[in-house]
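User: Design a sequence. Structure:
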């Protein structure tokens, strides 16, 4: 029995994968082998024929950002043409339309805008909650670290203030790869991995659920990917606060890293399957149809994912990188059914609606 077969046997026996096991699988295992094992793992952790989705909208309250990440095609520098801070009238129109379309939440994210202080974020949340009944999934860890540093408040104090104003959960954005040698090259002005993890741990301690993400396919190595997964798994062991993990691939068009070749769909599916197998303490793995398209999304749910994420009534960041995949709720339901699964709309906490 070779090393791959030994690892696959351990998976079949429901034993936890080591970092060394995961690196071996990423470098040497066959996608179909991985996909079969990942599907079995999904069936143990989830209701095996159900694939969930959420109806929501990504609202970017500002695109002005001093982070200037090399992988981002969306941001504008302070004073640059096209920079904006959303007006409340437009924000209201977007939320009204979301609710009319059956939406249950908004994803509220924006750039690290030096012209905004903590009072802006508190006012934004208070305004939404005063006027609408909707779940606010908002402010990724880099935004919270930025607010903390700008306001001279601790991360815990900032999160407490945001919760009091109406924040319901935190998205996993800004994780990229949780390896600082990579972060220093692609996002040198953004928080380090320890700070990202500290925001999430603090949120979990305060009773706030969050998601976790990984954006890969740029300058990272396979070892960096597994290192990232291990940091997520270790924190989940400690707090149980992550509701889902969302791996997605870097989209190079219109970015400072546009000379990087986009990774293949096969590699995307391989990393997704390994994520399912390695993250044995996170029930929900989300397929990224917005970067991969319908057909690969269908393969992803066959090979271990149990969630298709948002219908994305609006999405701007990935679209700025030239990716224009779109799905209506009707199309998402069809996609799930055509793949042989049962579609179920959910809320942010994976309760069926």
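Assistant: Done.
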């Amino acid at each position: 029995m070779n090393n791959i077969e030994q690892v696959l046997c351990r998976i079949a026996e429901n034993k936890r994968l080591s970092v060394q096991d995961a690196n071996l699988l990423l470098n040497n295992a066959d996608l179909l082998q991985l996909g079969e094992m990942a599907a079995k793992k999904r069936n143990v952790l989830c209701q095996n024929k159900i694939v969930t989705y959420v109806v929501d909208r990504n609202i970017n309250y500002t695109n002005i950002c001093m982070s200037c990440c090399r992988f981002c095609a969306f941001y504008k520098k302070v004073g640059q043409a096209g920079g904006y801070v959303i007006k409340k009238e437009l924000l209201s129109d977007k939320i009204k339309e979301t609710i009319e379309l059956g939406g249950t939440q908004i994803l509220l994210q924006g750039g690290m805008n030096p012209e905004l202080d903590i009072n802006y974020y508190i006012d934004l949340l208070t305004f939404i909650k005063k006027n609408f009944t909707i779940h606010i999934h908002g402010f990724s860890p880099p935004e919270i670290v930025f607010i903390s540093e700008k306001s001279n408040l601790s991360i815990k104090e900032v999160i407490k203030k945001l919760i009091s104003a109406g924040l319901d959960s935190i998205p996993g954005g800004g994780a990229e790869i949780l390896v600082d040698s990579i972060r220093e090259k692609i996002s040198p002005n953004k928080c380090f991995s320890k700070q990202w993890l500290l925001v999430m741990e603090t949120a979990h301690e305060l009773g706030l659920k969050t998601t976790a993400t990984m954006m890969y396919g740029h300058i990272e190595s396979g070892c960096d990917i597994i290192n990232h997964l291990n940091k997520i798994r270790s924190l989940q062991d400690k707090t149980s606060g992550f509701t889902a993990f969302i791996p997605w691939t870097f989209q190079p068009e219109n970015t400072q890293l546009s000379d990087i070749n986009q990774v293949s769909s096969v590699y995307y599916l391989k990393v997704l399957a390994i994520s399912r197998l390695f993250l044995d303490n996170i029930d929900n793995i989300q397929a990224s149809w917005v970067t991969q398209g319908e057909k690969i999304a269908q393969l992803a749910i066959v090979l271990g994912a149990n969630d298709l994420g948002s219908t994305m009534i609006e999405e701007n960041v990935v679209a700025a990188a030239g990716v224009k995949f779109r799905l209506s709720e009707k199309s998402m339901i069809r996609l799930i059914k055509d793949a042989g699964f049962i579609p179920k709309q959910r809320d942010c906490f994976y309760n069926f609606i």
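The two ends are 47 Å apart (CA to CA). Residues 317-325 have pLDDT under 50 and may be disordered.
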